[in-house]
Amino acid sequence: MVNRYLGYLLLFIVLFACAKVSLLIEGDGVFVDPRDGEEYPYALIGNQTWMIRNMNYETGDSWWYSDDESFGKDFGRLYSWQSALKACPNGWHLPTDLEWKKLEISQGMDIYSADSSDWRRSGAVAIPLKHTAGWFSGGTGTNDSRFTALPGGFRSTGEQFVYKGDIANYWTSSYTSETHAWGRAMIYYEAGVYRWKYDKEEGFTVRCLKD
Question: Is the overall model pTM greater than 0.90, yes or no?
């Protein structure tokens, strides 16, 4: 009898150790990238159709967090701005700063706040944009929008991978100078969305918007 219970216990330990936590992402359909066969759920949010999974297509300067391929399934790759411009497949594109504002306004941000920089807390729109899983304890996401923002961290200009589980950074296609472009950030404890001009050499997440 003892040996039987011991066997069950060992089996449970093995299965638990081998199990991979998978983040549930539900959308209106799935797009299959013809370049590599990767599947990307998408959803209608407001009047825009967004992929609701981070891009995991290898192009130019792009990296998995900590150069670990296992992060790609849930968190995708991190891209320099120039590489981000080429990451989306045909029929989709890296959204502009204006298209990000439309997303934010659709979730309750006022127009004045959408046009401002830094933390914009109007409407607490990060809450419906963030997934309920994947964030540090205390994360504020409900994912009511189905955007499914995940904290993939970023790659700094010093080539360091930082803040996975803490922060999500997204590129837009709108540049502000030869060295900087508009981006967005969400952090686990914050209800607002950060809008800032980031160094193009940093490695950020890419989300694609349907043409």
Answer: no
